[in-house]
Amino acid sequence: MYTMIKEKELSSKELQAIKVIRNSLTHKGRMPSYRELMVSLEFKSPRSSSLMFHRLESKGVLKKKKNGSFQFIDIEEDDEHAQTINIPLVGTVACGAPMLVEENIEAMIPVSNRLAKPNAKYFLLRASGDSMSKAGINNGDLVLVRQQQTAENGDWVVALVDDGVTIKELSISENAVILKPRSTNKSHKPIILDRDFRIQGVVVTVLGKIGIL
Fold it and tell me: Between the CA of residue 128 and those of 58, 125, 139, 181, 189, what are the distances in Å?
């Protein structure tokens, strides 16, 4: 049985390795290879990466499975030391295009893994306009979005509509999907779509204007 190790019991290099592992699991859905870990941690050989994996195993951060691969157990974080994961900030996205293709990514931004929790994919989006001002989403705010194609009534969703990205409140009826604005600006109207409409993600939190780029 594995007991979660405390962050303070790990060296700075081990904590760096854990961040690389978290990023790989989030963005690639797999553990990093020895060579990928070598490059990220500036080791001189893949053997150093192998030794790092075994050190993390010995401390209970990794568990070796029957097929020889490793499973990530994670660590217990100290309250004063937040761990982060790199989340892509996406720019303008053309209608019909995948949200997270390389040409849409402006930067990779470190975000606490208490906001961007493991076992899900996330992206940051810079809001445009005032159609969700009553919900506290204003022009230029950064919004943390969990990437998924399903949502529930009342969720704030991200969608590709017409020639760009929109954030709206989701309302599902028997025959249609309605994207509702929440704005003090009365010019914004609901968008009515058929049931084949696909969601790009659900808003987790609004980070506001934090001076990135």
Answer: 48, 9, 5, 13, 16
Whether 13 sits among the annotated catalytic residues: the reply is no
Q: How far apart are CA 179 and CA 5, in angstroms?
A: 44
Could you tell me which CATH number the domain at 5-76 has?
1.10.10.10
CATH architecture designation of domain 84-208: Ribbon (2.10)
Marked catalytic residue, from 131, 133, 180, 183:
131
Active site annotation includes 131: yes
Residue 178 forms beta bridges with which residues?
A: 171, 192
Mean per-residue pLDDT pooled into runs of 10, the chain (213 residues)? 61 89 81 92 92 91 86 67 80 69 82 82 89 90 91 92 85 89 91 83 88 55
Domain limits of the chain? 5-76, 84-208
At 28, phi and psi to the nearest 5?
-115, -10
Give the predicted TM-score (pTM) of the model: 0.69
Q: Which of 49, 168, 180, 183 is catalytic?
A: 168
Contact (CB, 8 A) for 76 and 7 = yes
Specify the residue for token string 């808003």.
203
Name the residue with tokens 């050190």.
55
Do 84-208 and 5-76 have the same topology in CATH? no
Counting Cβ atoms within 10 Å, is residue 131 exposed (0-12), middle (13-18) or buried (19+)? buried
